[in-house]
Write a structure and sequence with these properties.
The chain is mostly helical. It is built from nine helices and no strands. The chain folds into two domains: 45 residues, Single alpha-helices involved in coiled-coils or other helix-helix interfaces (Up-down Bundle); 108 residues, Up-down Bundle (AhpD-like). 60% of the residues lie in helices and 0% in strands. Helix 4 packs across helix 7 and helix 7 crosses helix 9.
Length: 191
């Protein structure tokens, strides 16, 4: 993809058009990742809203929590596949490949978690994430029992629900804006 390729249905602001807070976030991403994720660039116009989303997203996905980083990326990929969110399947698929050190399984999860040969714990997490994503009105207290049976505690269950909710929101924003994943994601975490 060339430097002038479109990354969103909306125009993307130039670096000199964004707020100081957004410019700092872009610079930090460039320093840490070697590029600025297109999701940061495509949402930069409404900086207060974007930064509020980013703070919560960062807390749920990138900080130490009750689930492992690999668990949270696994959930991101399962939900993003169900929602057919190209940006998040590609970007979080890359993160899952890196965190799991298992590109084959991560790629299978990105297509169909049921065919990935997952352990019981991941199967229970994926099944719950699928029901909450596809049939949220049908979720009941009984749906938590399989998560408990595979060893998840109350803190982990709550975090799982929050991560699934965050990715349902993020997938819809990314899809609605036609966000294109950065080229760098396609090769990350591959041998």
């Amino acid at each position: 993809m060339g430097p002038d390729a479109r990354i969103s249905y909306l125009p993307v602001p130039a670096p000199e058009e964004v707020s100081e807070d957004i410019a700092k976030l872009w610079a930090k991403a460039e320093e840490n990742m070697g590029f600025v994720p297109n999701v940061f660039r495509a949402q930069a116009y409404n900086d207060d809203q974007f930064l509020a989303w980013w703070r919560y997203f960062n807390l749920l996905v990138n900080k130490e929590g009750y689930l492992s980083n690999a668990d949270r990326e696994f959930l991101a990929v399962v939900v993003s596949n169900l929602n057919r969110c190209t940006y998040c399947c590609i970007s979080h698929g890359a993160a899952l490949r890196e965190l799991s050190a298992d590109a084959r399984t991560a790629d299978l999860v990105a297509v169909n978690w049921r065919q990935a040969g997952l352990p019981e714990r991941e199967q229970a997490m994926a099944a719950y994430a699928e029901k909450l994503t596809v049939h949220p009105a049908e979720v009941t207290e009984d749906d938590l029992q399989p998560l408990r049976e595979v060893g998840l505690d109350e803190h982990q269950i709550l975090e799982l629900v929050q991560v699934v909710g965050m990715f349902n929101l993020t997938n819809r924003v990314s899809t609605a804006l036609g966000m294109v994943p950065n080229e760098q994601y396609h090769s990350q975490g591959r041998p």
